[in-house]
Amino acid sequence: MMSNHGKRITQGQFSFLPDLTDAQISAQIEFALSRGYAVNVEYTDDPHPRNTYWEMFGMPMFDLKDPAGILMEINNCRKTFPNHYVRVTAFDSTRGWETPRMSFIVNRPANEPGFGLVRAEGPGRSVTYTVASYAAQRPEGERY
Amino acid sequence: MGTLSPGAAAPQDSELDLGALLRESHALEVIEALDRELVGLAPVKTRIQEIAALLVVDRARAQLGIAGDQPPSLHMCFTGNPGTGKTTVALRMAEILHRLGYVRKGHLVSVTRDDLVGQYIGHTAPKTREVIKKAMGGVLFIDEAYYLYKPENERDYGQESIEILLQVMENNRDDLVVILAGYKDRMDTFFRSNPGMSSRIAHHIDFPDYTPEELFAIAGIMLERMHYKLSDAAAAALREYIGLRRARAHFANARSIRNALDRARLRQAKRLFAGQAAGVTRDALMTIEADDIRASRLFRSDASEGTT
């Protein structure tokens, strides 16, 4: 994640693969719907690995039978935020799980500068490390 | 690959068995069931068979590589008086279209104005979109569609909903089929004020009223499903009842018949209780007698405008 191989952030499923086509995205959503997951579309311009909660694009979509409706929302989101990260998550409400079971990125900014390693000197010459996104140093909305 | 001319996918003069294609899709079973279980409605059944034939021919053309780039538009409008079977046919239609491969999932989402139109500015579009997303891959059935347009209020949000529907009906033709339903005269007014809607709907199907004979047959089917039967005298009484009821106000075809039968069941239960509570036979439990029907208010000479 931090080494930013090929200038691509790797989060969620399929992120080491080339971008999924719309047909492949539909097939994944079809699987999620067949398992009864609620699918939602989320976006962010702060892809820090610890940034779990992205903004939701519209409402989560319950009771859908066909991926076409979700694909329509994904394309709406891509059109609204062409230079943001957009991901699809599928939430499983089964008791005991109650958590997203699937999550994959469906849209990326054209240029992903990645993360830099930040070293902070602590007491007794100890060093703590963290990562900081190059892009996130600019204000929200101007990052990519 | 890449430079195939139309028709090159298969030999030009190869023969396809249309009947086999239809059998393969198992749509025939649904059409036959529709023919068997729905009484009357001849124009509706003809149109459904035409649509099925069109889709089979389309599939055959696709196999030979001569399909056009646009799938046929199958948005429909069902007009007819209350109780003529519009919703029932819409349900079957979803199943037929699914089996013929026109829609991917074949479910029916039945909505009315309340489900589409919001209550404040900015509420309508997401609401309509949500319903459309649910219906994708199936059939969206809009009952009493003329309520969407209220000419007396130009700021009504219904117009916004209609515009979104129009857009989806045009752009997502292969994702969902929209069926509008409503009374004939009010739908005509609706289409006159929304010409865009009218031109996007290829099939206007009119549901005729049932004849007394057809209503009697419908009553027979309903009773059979409820495991009741009519005595001979009761059958005669029911025929008479249908004649009287048709002439009354608020006659809702098959729905009125179902209500009448429900009330007859009520009276039968009461009669059984009053008469022979000690020992009832299986036959008595199943039979509706003439008295159960003749107790209706319609048979009284001084009957007012009530419906029972």
The count of DSSP E runs of length 2 or more, i.e. the number of strands of chain A, is 6
In what order do the strands lie side by side in the largest sheet of chain B? 2-3-4-1-5
What letter string, H or E per element, gives the SSE order of chain A?
HEEHEEEE
What is the CA-CA span between the terminal residues of chain A? 18 Å
N-C termini distance of chain B: 72 Å
Mean of residue pLDDT of chain B? 85
Tell me the helix content of chain A. 10-25%
**Overall pLDDT score of chain A:** 91
**Which percent range describes the beta-strand content of chain A?**
25-35%
What do you see in this structure?
The complex is a heterodimer of chains A (144) and B (308). With 144 residues, chain A is of the alpha+beta class. Chain A is built from 2 helices and 6 strands; from the N terminus they run αββαββββ. In chain A, strand 5 and strand 6 form a beta hairpin. Chain B is built from 14 helices and 7 strands. The chains are: A alpha+beta (144), B alpha/beta (308). Chains A and B meet through helix 2 of A and helix 6 of B.
Features:
heterodimer, A: 144 residues, alpha+beta, 4-stranded antiparallel β-sheet, two-stranded antiparallel sheet, 2 helices, globular, B: 308 residues, alpha/beta, 5-stranded parallel β-sheet, two-stranded parallel sheet, disordered N terminus
Brief overview, please?
Chain A is of the alpha+beta class. Chain A has helices spanning 22-34, 68-80, and strands at 38-44, 55-56, 85-92, 99-107, 115-121, 127-133.
List the helices and strands and how they pair.
The complex is a heterodimer of chains A (144) and B (308).
Chain A: H1 22-34, E1 38-44, E2 55-56, H2 68-80, E3 85-92, E4 99-107, E5 115-121, E6 127-133
Antiparallel strand pairs in A: 1-2, 1-3, 3-4, 5-6
Chain B: H1 18-25, H2 27-37, H3 42-63, E1 76-80, H4 86-99, E2 108-111, H5 113-116, H6 124-135, E3 139-142, H7 158-171, E4 177-182, H8 184-193, H9 195-200, E5 203-207, H10 212-226, E6 229-230, H11 232-247, H12 253-276, H13 282-286, E7 287-288, H14 290-294
Parallel strand pairs in B: 1-4, 1-5, 2-3, 3-4, 6-7
